Structure formats: structure tokens, C-alpha cells
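Case study.
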Amino acid sequence: MSAIKRIGRELKEFNDNPLPNISAGPASEDDLFKWNVILTAPPGSPYTGGIFTLRLELPQEYPFKPPTLSFTTKIYHPNVSNDDKGSMCLGILRSDSWKPSCKISQVLEMAAGLLKEPNVDDAVETGIAEEYKNNYEQFAKTAREWTRKHAK
Amino acid sequence: MAPSRSSRNSLQSVDLRALDYLTVPSANLLCPICHSPLITPVQTRCLHTFCSACISLSLDRSLSCPVDRKPLSHDDVTPAPIMIANLVNDLPVLCPNRERGCTASCARWLVESHVREDCEYASVKCAKEGCDGMVERREAEGECVHEEVQCEYCEGSVKKVDLESHNRECPKLSSECPHCLQAFANPELAAHMAECPEEIVECSASCYGCSYTSRRSDIESHTSTCHFVALSPVLQLHAERIATLELENKAIRQKLDLLVPPRPLPTPTSSTVTTTASNPMSASSQVSSTTTAGRDMTSEMQDYTFHLYSEYEQLRSDVERLNAQIRELDVKQDMARINEGLRYNDEMTGVRAAINGLRMQLHWLLANRREAGTSSPATSGNAGRAVAGGSANGGEIRRMSDSARQVVKL
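After joint prediction, the assembly is written out as follows.
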């Protein structure tokens, strides 16, 4: 199982060089394909102070197929679907632009980066993206409110 | 040494990808796919380097470079420069038998020969002629551990390698009872443990609630005074009865689930009442028979139940149909009645209008008649007088009649 070996290697690497504001690891010892991720929102964003939990699922064909990343904490964000899945579908996670050389830590870094700077041109929630572009104050207000309500 | 050397080559295979490296290898030497130092490195047309196995796996799934996603085919993959292969092959690794105790480390390209020929902990074929067992190389020089030896206690034959585990259960050896600390021969130990006087045991009525525990030798005195023990025959009887009732209950519930449909019953008519009334009776008789027959629902009874149930269902649907028909008729009749009423109403108003017209005519006629009645006697009187009194006073009389007529008119 090349997937397990690679995931194990990435896990070790991730534990040796942890990323700021991100903690992650497999949900259980015997299933390396499901990870729990906790993101602490970086300062300078409407999500500041929020603690977001995410679920990272790696396919059996990893690294040839992209992992899926979904927010389990509700978040008001243009790139996160506003349903009970909370899935994040973006750039490198799309199967047509996924590269096997991409690492889990890069995926998580990207997710953390999106909290700071949403990518409105590649939005899932177009309504929120419009609001972000045209009425940032309102967007920030709602995002802060949701963060206070769901992520604390 | 010479004759046994070749036979002592280990057949153990080395998984290069699972090796642990002595130093952290440079990130430039890692395969982008498996993230371990390159194994049989190959190079693509776009000058990226991968393990040969990894890139072919990737190309099986998608014909593009895993790094820059440029189109790529199997033909675009060529062996990497020998320098890269040398760099990764020279990386120092730990022996894969490290967990068994080997502390050796060597360059990666040597690790296979180390395991095959040198590693003291690699498993090799047993040196003895005709023996198929495997043994670690360091023990291969000694006598064959797969030989059958005689156990010095029980005189049975045991493989040498299994001797240690055999000693734990050899019938001639003794072990200590964990309760009374006396030594017993292995086969007798189980029998002793069942009656060891020192073991802490529970009161025999513990299942009924007695929480008393003591050494087995002392439990007898407690048993003679324990109320739970005294009551235990009765309690046991009760427990048995409850168990039977529970089983029976379960069977009855099963029947009930079959008989009672999940949706609410419509207003029962006489036919459904009789069927439902007969069902519980048959169900209870069935239940009693099932409980005596070992509480098994035989297929026959099931068929019967289903038959009853289907009959009941049929009747119910009949009643539902009849109900619907009655309702329909009701509605029809209501409609007809209302229509009739409307028609009568119309007719009534017509008749009333006609009567009114007639009344008006009558009034007019009456008024006319009255008028004619008052004027005609005057003219006839005039005429009589005119006949009797001559025409000399005619003008005067006419005037009088005129005034009289005017009075009437007024």
C-alpha cells in the first residue's frame, strides 16, 4: 500500500515541522485516511478568535487522487459551501488540477490562507462572494457573528 | 563454513521504501509521489524525477506529469542520470531487521546483500540437512532447533524451538495456584482452582442480590443463614416463570404486529367487528398452542395468520369502498335536493310575480267598476226624471248630478 506509506511519511513530517495555527492528525490510529484538522483563524480576518474544525479525507488512490476537505464548524466564507457538508472545493483540490506531488501540509496551508484571504473568483457561495466584493462591511459583520456563534 | 554458505543465504526480501534512513535525506532526492528517497529514479520529458514504479502508477491513472500536469506518456520516461541514482543509492540506511536487534547500517545499495548474506538476524534456512524450518542466522550454526527433543518431565517429544512454551503446560511440571499459593501439577491445577478453599467466592444467591463474599471454606456457614439462599427456590421459580412469560409475550407481540395493521382503523362496521373479534381469539389460541409447542411459529400457523389477515384486509377494503360509495350518494342527493330547491324557488318567484300582476289588474278593475257604479245610477236617474219631469229641468238636474259626481270623484 503505497498510499499508507506516503501518508505515514507525511504525518511524520507534519509532526516534525508543525504549521502555525494548524493542528492535524488521523482521527484514529488504524485509519490514516481520515484526519481531523483544527484551524485557528489568523489575526486580521473577520474570523479572528474562531477555532474551526475540519475533516480531511484521503482517497485510497492517494496521492493520485485529491483529498477532500470539509469544515465541520459552520463558517461564513465564499469558498466553503453553506450546507451541512461544509465542503471546500478549490483550486488544487479539484481532481483536474490536483498534482500527486502536492502534500497534505500544503493543502492545510492553503485552507488556513483562505481564512485570511478568501478567493472570490473561485467561490462556491457566489452570494457571499458578491457581498465580499461589494459590501465588505456587511460580509465582515456576518462572518464575525457566525464565528462568535459557531466557532467559539 | 564453505559448504553451508550458499544454503544460508536469506530469502528475506527487502522493501526499499520501508527503510529507515540514518540521516534525513535531502528533499531534492525525494520522489514527489511517494515522498521517500528515489528508488530506481527515472526522468520525464519535462525533466522531473520520480521512482520508476511511482510514475508508471501515476501514468496508469492520468497521462500527465504529476508535478506540472503537462501531457506525458510512458514513452517520455527515461532513466535518470546515473549521478542521481548514485546519490540515492549511497544514502545510509538502517538494517530492516533492526527490531530483532541488528544495529548495522550501510549504504542503501548494500542493504540487500547485507540481509542476504551477513545480517545475523535475518531468517535463513536451518542448516540441518532435510530440515525446512527457518531460523535467525546467528543461531544457524548451532544444532537444529526444529529437531524433536524429549521433554525431560513428561517424556513427550517437543520441537526444541517450542520447548519454552511447552514447559508452561507440561503435565509433569507444577504451577502455583494463584489463591492458596500451593504448587500443583499442571493437569490438576484446573481441578484444584475449581475448589481451592482459599479462593474468594460469592454467595450462591448472589444473582438474587446477596452481596456477601468470603473464602470458599467459610462460605458454608454463611449459606446456612443467608435469607437469599433460603428464598432461592422460590426466587428461581419466579425467575423461570418470568422468563416463560416474557417469551410468551414476545410471541404474542409478534402475532399482534401481524394482525394489527399499522394505520388506524376506519369506523368499524359490523363485518369488521366480527373479524377483529374473531382474530384475537384465534391469535390467543394460536399463542397458547405455540407456547406449548416450544414457542415456534410453525409455517402452518403463519399461513393461517396470513390467511386471516388477508381476509380481514379484504373485508376492510370492502367496507372502505362501501363507505366511499355511501358518501358519494349522499353528496349526489344533496346536490339534487339543492338543485330542486333552487328550481322551486325560481318557480315561486315567477308565480308570485304573476299573482302580483293579477292583483294589480284586479285593483284596477275594481276601481273601474266602482267608478262605473257611481256614474251609471246618476245617468239612469236623470234619464228617469227626464222621462218623468220633462226636459225643462234637465239642465238643473244635470248640474246637481255634476256636483254629486264631483263629490264622488273627490
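Observations recorded in class. Chain A is about 35% helix and 20% strand. Chain A has a mean pLDDT of 86. We will return to this complex in the next lecture.
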